[in-house]
Amino acid sequence: MIGTPPAADRLARLAEEIVGEPPTVRLRAWDGSEAGPADAPVVEVRHRRALRRLLWRPDRMGLARAWVAGEITVPGDLYDVLARLTFPAEGPHDRGAAVRDLLALGLPGPPPPVPAEEARRRTGARHGRERDRRAVSHHYDVGNDFYDLVLGPSLVYSCAYWDTAHPTAGGSDAPAGPGARTAVTLEAAQEAKLELICRKLGLRPGDRLLDVGCGWGSLVLHAARHHGVHAVGVTLSAEQAARATERAAAQGLADRVEIRFQDYRDVGDGPYDAIASVGMAEHVGAAEFGRYAAVVHALLRPGGRLLNHQIARRPAPDETRYRLDPFIDSYVFPDGELAPLGHTVSGLETAGLEVRDVESLREHYALTLRQWVRNLEAAWPQAVRLAGPGRARIWRLYMAASALAFEQGNLGINQILAVRTGDRGSSGLPLRARDWTAGPRP
To answer: Which spans does this entry mark as compositional bias, Basic and acidic residues (predicted)?
Structure first.
């Protein structure tokens, strides 16, 4: 009598029906059986419930829910697995055969509950104030201690600025102070990034700086401490605002740094000499970007500078069909949108800003993300305790996948320096602006 095939063999056949080719990873099933290339990295399907998710959602979302629920995991090198895997956005290559195999594995029944970490039904106008506040809270209000663990002492949640393609994982050998050039640790590379922004903005003592989406306050604290500015940081994350305020007081900068739990659209105390927007415009949305640029323009004094630091995607063949990856939209950045670089530049120029410099930091972000993943994996039990297993799995997957996307050129990150020109079109920039000196001011 012929016995039932091991579960892993059925998984391998199912994978081929979904993707259209034999699996490129080794599959380990819940019964301990394995199938697939012997020398390939392992993907564990720990529970047959993962396949029931795929029965009801035979697309990337079904796979994402199984990952978040811990029903699918990667015990080894996640980067290697992600580089090998393909999963059709529109569902299985052979849908009928895939459904038959799923049913043959004994999977009838209702769809499993959605993991609690998934963003719930969204109400209100897209990118309205209250909906934006909830979206930001979903991502950032997961515990400051968790972000301490992932980001390290710098508490900077954006692309660092490296001097070497082979950074070290940490340590205290980083040079201190503004302008330090050897960025071989994450902390030193983040310090170098903060200083680069301040130099591009041409900050001088007494200037007013606005940081739109200030996070935990690292940039405004750096600018106040090293450049003598009076800085305002705004954020829609209550946890960020509280922590940034504490940091300003602890560093003796409360008289020069103000942190507000406030929407950037409600800032009304301009003009500012300089505005930084670092990793914030991705939350604005294409329909609202024109308004965002107009608000920033209005808040700058003539001759004031804007540093817009923003992730970019490749232009789509049909921009009307662009959609954010469902995993990112549901679990990471609800309502977030990425724009091609050209769209961002055009939006700033349409608002009346003059774009003076664009610098790509694509490789720098890949290095930064790998450091964050290393931090997370090195303290995995603590991360799970702080944020819960589902949230920790989300961050591990999205940061590792993002690192590969930057390395492969599917995503970019750009610093755009723009100016609200003054009288007679003066920008106030030096003739050789790439030296990033303050230069004369109109």
So the answer is: 117-134
Tokens of 327: 């995993």
pLDDT tens-digit map of 60-84:
888 899 999 999 999 999 999 999 9
The fourth-level CATH superfamily of domain 129-435 is Vaccinia Virus protein VP39 (3.40.50.150)
**3-state DSSP call for residue 45?**
strand
What DSSP letter does each residue of 209-231 carry, written as one string?
EEEET-TTSHHHHHHHHHH--EE
Domain range annotation of the chain = 7-104, 129-435
DSSP H helical segments within 179-278, as ranges? 186-200, 218-227, 238-250
| Antiparallel, parallel or unpaired: β 272-278 and 300-313 | parallel
Q: Running DSSP on this structure, what letter comes out for residue 273? A: E
Structure tokens that stand for 63 in this block:
């796979």
Those residues whose C-beta lies under 8 Å from the C-beta of residue 424, and which sit 6 or more positions away, are none
272-278 and 208-212 strand pairing: parallel
**Mean pLDDT of all residues in 290-313:** 97
What's the confidence (pLDDT) of residue 433?
Answer: 72
For the chain, how long is the longest CA-to-CA vector? 91
pTM, two decimals, is 0.90
Tell me: the pLDDT tens digits for 128-183?
Answer: 777 878 877 877 778 899 999 999 999 999 999 999 777 875 443 333 344 444 55
**Contacts for 150 with CB less than 8 Å, ≥ 6 apart:** 372, 375, 376, 383, 395
140: closest CA among 34, 281, 238? 238
Reported as a single tens digit per residue, the pLDDT across 238-287 is 999 999 999 999 999 999 999 999 999 999 999 999 999 999 999 998 88
Average pLDDT, the chain: 87
Is residue 44 over pLDDT 70? yes
DSSP state, residue 353: P
The pair of three-digit structure tokens given for residue 250, joined into one six-digit string: 């602890």
Angle at the Cα of 161 from the Cα atoms of 157 and 163, rounded to 5 degrees: 145
Residue 350, both tokens: 């349409």
* Number of Cβ atoms within 10 Å of the Cβ of 269: 11
Q: What whole-number distance in Å separates Cα of residue 317 and Cα of residue 324?
A: 15
ω into residue 271 within 30 of 0, thus cis?
yes
